[in-house]
Amino acid sequence: MFDLIIKNGKVVSPASTVACDVAIKDGKIAALGHFNASEAASVVDATGKYVMPGVIEAHMHCQAPFQGCLGANTFFEQSISGAFGGVTTFMDFANMSRGQSPYTQALARAEEMSESAIDYSVHGKFVESTPEAIADIEKMADAGMPTFKMFMTYKKEGVMSDDETMLKVFQKAKEVGGLPMVHCESNAIAESNIEKCRQAGDMSWVNFAKCKPVLCEAEAFARAVYFTEYIGNGLIVVHTTNGEALDTARRAQAKDLPLYVETGPHYLTLFDDLYQGENGHLAICSPPLRTPEEAEDLWQGLKDGTILLTGSDDCTFDIDEKSMFLEKNPDGTWKQDFTKVVNGLSGLEIRLPILLSEGVNKGRISINKLCALTSTNIAKVYGCYPQKGIIAPGSDADIVLVDLDKEVVLSKEVLHNNISYCLHEGMKVIGYPVMTIAKGKIIVENGQFKGEKGAGRFLKRKIDPQYLAHYSLD
Amino acid sequence: MFDLIIKNGKVVSPASTVACDVAIKDGKIAALGHFNASEAASVVDATGKYVMPGVIEAHMHCQAPFQGCLGANTFFEQSISGAFGGVTTFMDFANMSRGQSPYTQALARAEEMSESAIDYSVHGKFVESTPEAIADIEKMADAGMPTFKMFMTYKKEGVMSDDETMLKVFQKAKEVGGLPMVHCESNAIAESNIEKCRQAGDMSWVNFAKCKPVLCEAEAFARAVYFTEYIGNGLIVVHTTNGEALDTARRAQAKDLPLYVETGPHYLTLFDDLYQGENGHLAICSPPLRTPEEAEDLWQGLKDGTILLTGSDDCTFDIDEKSMFLEKNPDGTWKQDFTKVVNGLSGLEIRLPILLSEGVNKGRISINKLCALTSTNIAKVYGCYPQKGIIAPGSDADIVLVDLDKEVVLSKEVLHNNISYCLHEGMKVIGYPVMTIAKGKIIVENGQFKGEKGAGRFLKRKIDPQYLAHYSLD
Amino acid sequence: MFDLIIKNGKVVSPASTVACDVAIKDGKIAALGHFNASEAASVVDATGKYVMPGVIEAHMHCQAPFQGCLGANTFFEQSISGAFGGVTTFMDFANMSRGQSPYTQALARAEEMSESAIDYSVHGKFVESTPEAIADIEKMADAGMPTFKMFMTYKKEGVMSDDETMLKVFQKAKEVGGLPMVHCESNAIAESNIEKCRQAGDMSWVNFAKCKPVLCEAEAFARAVYFTEYIGNGLIVVHTTNGEALDTARRAQAKDLPLYVETGPHYLTLFDDLYQGENGHLAICSPPLRTPEEAEDLWQGLKDGTILLTGSDDCTFDIDEKSMFLEKNPDGTWKQDFTKVVNGLSGLEIRLPILLSEGVNKGRISINKLCALTSTNIAKVYGCYPQKGIIAPGSDADIVLVDLDKEVVLSKEVLHNNISYCLHEGMKVIGYPVMTIAKGKIIVENGQFKGEKGAGRFLKRKIDPQYLAHYSLD
Amino acid sequence: MFDLIIKNGKVVSPASTVACDVAIKDGKIAALGHFNASEAASVVDATGKYVMPGVIEAHMHCQAPFQGCLGANTFFEQSISGAFGGVTTFMDFANMSRGQSPYTQALARAEEMSESAIDYSVHGKFVESTPEAIADIEKMADAGMPTFKMFMTYKKEGVMSDDETMLKVFQKAKEVGGLPMVHCESNAIAESNIEKCRQAGDMSWVNFAKCKPVLCEAEAFARAVYFTEYIGNGLIVVHTTNGEALDTARRAQAKDLPLYVETGPHYLTLFDDLYQGENGHLAICSPPLRTPEEAEDLWQGLKDGTILLTGSDDCTFDIDEKSMFLEKNPDGTWKQDFTKVVNGLSGLEIRLPILLSEGVNKGRISINKLCALTSTNIAKVYGCYPQKGIIAPGSDADIVLVDLDKEVVLSKEVLHNNISYCLHEGMKVIGYPVMTIAKGKIIVENGQFKGEKGAGRFLKRKIDPQYLAHYSLD
Ligand SMILES: [Zn+2]
Ligand SMILES: [Zn+2]
Ligand SMILES: [Zn+2]
Ligand SMILES: [Zn+2]
Ligand SMILES: [Zn+2]
Ligand SMILES: [Zn+2]
Ligand SMILES: [Zn+2]
Ligand SMILES: [Zn+2]
């Protein structure tokens, strides 16, 4: 007797779309086949729907004490918003500042996340390479958190890892079978530009993007890749935005360097013209939004396998938080100063819809490729496969049902992220998640959240060495 | 009640390896999961084994009236040999000469193949582009044979399709949703070289390879690709042997041209030094064997996705057939004349073992990649997916059990191909098929053939348009 | 005592611009330095002018019995028009048809050219590779004509060299230290397209360009390059029009293949929109005019050294000749049938002005690069360097004075090519030749022709082996 | 009446080799042509010799107070050694440390160099970007020294320019029409490796090369190029040693970035096996010597125009200086500690011979290319063309006569560099300078130095903007 049968759907994996039923028992996939409704306590009719492994979000910043803001959501609220977007597992970053233990911070963050309705995990964050910090890398790997974030910029903010730190973290990550995650922007280019803007007295939204142009990111990307090639480790580069960086990636991947590149839906659908608007600060994120031409390069990278990961880099700040350090002119307009804007965009809930609509339904990628990009590849790279990322006997029953024909006009009302604006306001997407199941329990159905606070469990991760030895997730 | 359960194996797909059982009923996969032995009429214990979709051989020449030889095997015998190599579906080529109907010839060939123990299909062959021949393309596609072979060389033998014919077949194949298959060698280079050898009076085995060097193949490859790009169709290039051609492929694939490249195990493991031996003629095939350096380029192509297909190009001629037009010198050695050697190598049975041993067990490709290269991708490109090429509910129960640790020394005694020599004689392979199941029936077990003559059925094929619209099988 | 001193000019070579005088004696450059007017019989004041080696035209078709037309000019008239464009040496092609001796034809053509006012030479033309034809290659090289033209298309017209002929001519050209010159268009693509147009009943000018698209040229280009790589010879590809071909060239040149690529001014300044006009047939040439985007690729090729040669491919047909096989509709418009248009554009006189204006004055290439592209490189590749192509002691005093500031509006009245239209009508060029000196004699001055019929001499050519051994003219 | 005529030589430029005489008056080239001996006060017979513009050395370190050593030569002695190697102009670097004025230091260095027998100039050196230091850039450009050296490593030694300083110097150099010169090695990689060696207690010569591998240089190279692309300036990268860096250069140059790459003769002829010897420390230079494979890549770069500059990076330390901080083991062998070795190799005198022998006489480059690489290109990039770098009327009569057949076995006795060893000891070179003329005076003839202390003059330089606007010296 199964707990639940999902009947008549099309079950999706990165390599196949199979018309069959999915039987679930004790929170896990029990069997694929064709079953009678009578064999289960309850049945979901998935006729006409795609039955996909739940989306995994490995890149978000919730309750980050960033520039004094914590964001609009608690982790429980964040898990609700995610669930509406098909997300069944998420990972966040430990807080970090000099002198602290990355390991202790990661444990603290895991504790905070335990109120979530879905499974969760934590990445370490590194800003220095003291012997103590480096020693923590092994502890974190042992504790199931073998991923270590670094920023190549934000020197003034005290967040940057310098080249020496990167090399040391790369080396140790390699030794413990872990993966560094790098935010690539050249601090020298960014800071010298900001200084020039300051001297010129023009800190407008538009100048934000000019301060951190494609080459600012591309230089840092190339440097991180050279360090990886030198150390011989694997690497995750988060939120890649441009073709120049992808060309560097192609050359490295052709040498079999295990370089896993992520991009996000905002870089595919939002562009730097937003900075020309009065409320351009709402679109300020790092790296900045780029041009439609760069977005085409990103789609090419998604198609040809240069980019194997997507992530939202979700930072859900409401207008008041984005603007909290800003002043206004006498005429009510903003005194534009991009250095005073809290960085980051909300995106957790819309990653899947945007990729369904702009990717699958526009013929750029198949539903199978989408499955890899939102779930399977992420599970593999971050070390929770095959527990997560696949619909197969024995795996967790984390599932999202997708209606590829459902049309939704994105707006702040449609989303569940607790903020009063939506950068995609008015955008029609075709293809939407219609049911989310976490470990066998329906947590979103008919537009209702049915999950439970604290139902999520800490996900202990370990990366398969084959993904660290070659550039391949097959 | 199932007919058969394969218990405790590791079920392989291109994207996953899942520890679960496979339940079979009425010749088809009924379910994946964990089942009790009591649920089936019989049970196979696959503990420690990989459970893979049966190998598909889309490139072989059996009973081809080639230069007066028919080869050592009937189609039934061929299916036996294949079954020992994990092959559960095979496809051969229609005979063809000017003035004949390709469609009629294909039907005749299908009839001949009906004695096979495994499912089978037929590719058309084209040497001219008369209106009648072109009209046959649609008939063939309608009859489930949407693949059309052409040779860019063998002009003197009357087998070559000239550029005009290629363009016309490409155009029509595109219109009917089919795929041309091209043997790429520049006839002008090959024939002018052969003529030079003839004038120089040196027709030694060694000169055979020199007459058709890498550039001979690479020029034709580039030409076929340009024609494809111009017409806008998809293309299969068979038996690709070198990195120069792969570089051409990479550029075309990066433009999203649906260019599916095949290579064969002989080009990965046999090299042109064989032509230096007295019995070098046994190694004569076209294109000729190359160098180990080229083989490394092929492995790279397999790894990075430039090559998505493997095929044996099996031509099982025994020594007497290979040598039937040759004469001997007074001292008993061969009067070497490569133009009198019947071309082609036996390979049907060893494709899987060689790719297991040299590919998976040497760490060059994963077992999942192997699955794609020997089965899934072939099913997709040739239009019989998901009936074939995957272990999923609803698919044919064509399965091969692989023991990745089993060691076999290849030799003529070990193989079942009815010939008295083996070019891989003495080569130890690690990893071997240990059981073959065709449509739910065990046809090879414990080294015994248990299949049935005529059990094979004609496989009606239709290519998914998405594989013709983009270069992607995901 | 010198015959002539050119004072105060800027003497240009591919690597330098030197402010000095040029002293001439007995038709040759005697010295460079600073001389008193009293040291010479006459003096030209070149203050503010660039003193450049005379333009060499190695690609023109004058008095070609092409489709029944001979063109508007005798060779003497052609040499006058050329002289106004700074041309001091030109080369034409032997006529050729099957069964004739290429060598004899070349001699006959040389005889015809002897009425020219400037020095001249002849290229052989090959349409077949009979033993006799091949044997002529050596005779031609010995006679100072080591360049051999072939067409890869025009099969129906009986002008095409097939692949076998190309290989044989390439081989023999290599043996005698000569260079094949190839017109690259795929006959199969071109003819199959023309046939389709014929069946569709649409032979409009616009369709002409569609029949011979970029890929039609690029395929043939790649094939010619593969043949060259295979034979190991050098190659000249004439009138290259697109970036796809240039990418092929770059790869070959990076392997040090001596592949010398030519483009012409028409492909840089005239585009395929001309075919939309009622008189679009006047713009019909082969390969067809392309887009501005392709022209940018050509400029890139000129800048980065992929293209080292320019040539006009001059075919000076007047309107009546271009239209002689055409009929008119009742309303007086042309019954468009591109197959009935005599191919080719006039360009001899405007090559230098266009390259000065569009190249040098628009900052795309330096005056030194221009010198190489119009004179020095051509002299080197075609084997008349340093007799031609450089202003240095001992070289022929073939010189053109250029005023880089002179503005001229191109029109049929401004040119001297005897035809009643100008495709560049109304185009303003900045930079123009103002004096032409051939072997020490002023032949154009103040807009007057001062040369002499029959003053030209046959130029015996021999190619420096270093240019055949490497891709380098340095 | 001329002062000197060089008769019957072959006068070399980057684009031509002309058989003519060179007439000299008042230290300058007066005329090229054919002159009577009676027209000059004296005559040199150059029959059979190549008459080339004198070698320019823009990269040497003489009297550098480096690690406490000044080197074996005064500037006068250095100019003598150079003259024997055909050098007629040299440039050195200002000393520099924090808080000092780069401009003042450059003037001081010019004063020190004034004892030279040949013309000289100075590059600035920058280790910081204080407003004062940046302001000095304009002063230096105005004073004829528009080239500014920075090191990307040697942080501990206080010599490194960090990324911020590089960006500021690049920006200002651009504004004043100058060029930065960068020593590319990643400090993070180098220092972290050295630290590892120290911890492992193995500071052997061999480990020196391992600490600064190809990727150490390549990362810094890529970073410098990205900064250049970002700022939009031109750049000189000195002493490039490997193909990875050249590939980066090719991509940048293809975008028309004015990136001028230098390599040196030691990287073409000396390899890292030298570090295995007891006296391996004598071969320690930075970047380290590489492999023969990398040298082949450098030759390719020289051939295809990726590398347009050569320089010796001469640091003439005698054995005692190289070893002055080293200790010995009881058995008399060195206590190997590469951090205690004074870096740098002698090379000023052998650059021309090595390039003649390994380059021209081995068929890798033409004598014209050699001319560009040793003189013309350097004059252009460093801003002293056409005063230097060309044999043309009006240019300085700096000339070296080369006998391309002269064989010399290199040894410490043959050279004039005041040191007691020669890393090329025993190497036979074919092709050697046989006479050196500086500003019309013979300074080396028949193995004798005939120059005069203090005859050199400070060379005021200014870079032609065209070389800063495009990647092209034509
Ligand atoms: Zn980030
Ligand atoms: Zn982030
Ligand atoms: Zn074949
Ligand atoms: Zn075959
Ligand atoms: Zn042509
Ligand atoms: Zn032509
Ligand atoms: Zn240095
Ligand atoms: Zn140096």
Automatic annotation (TrEMBL), chains A, B, C, D:
Family note: Belongs to the metallo-dependent hydrolases superfamily. Hydantoinase/dihydropyrimidinase family.
SUPFAM superfamilies according to UniProt: Composite domain of metallo-dependent hydrolases (SSF51338), Metallo-dependent hydrolases (SSF51556)
Keyword flag Hydrolase: yes
Residues of the Amidohydrolase-related domain: 50-442
Maturation and modification: Carbamylation allows a single lysine to coordinate two divalent metal cations.
GO CC annotation terms, alphabetical: cytosol
Cofactor: Zn(2+)
N6-carboxylysine: modified positions: 149
GO molecular function, one term: hydrolase activity, acting on carbon-nitrogen (but not peptide) bonds, in cyclic amides
UniProt KW Hydrolase keyword: yes
Pfam families associated with the record: Amidohydro_1
Keyword set, alphabetical order: Hydrolase, Metal-binding
InterPro entries: Amidohydro-rel (IPR006680), Hydantoinase/dihydroPyrase (IPR011778), Metal-dep_hydrolase_composite (IPR011059), Metal_Hydrolase (IPR032466), Metallo-dep_Hydrolases_sf (IPR050378)
Record protein name field: Dihydropyrimidinase
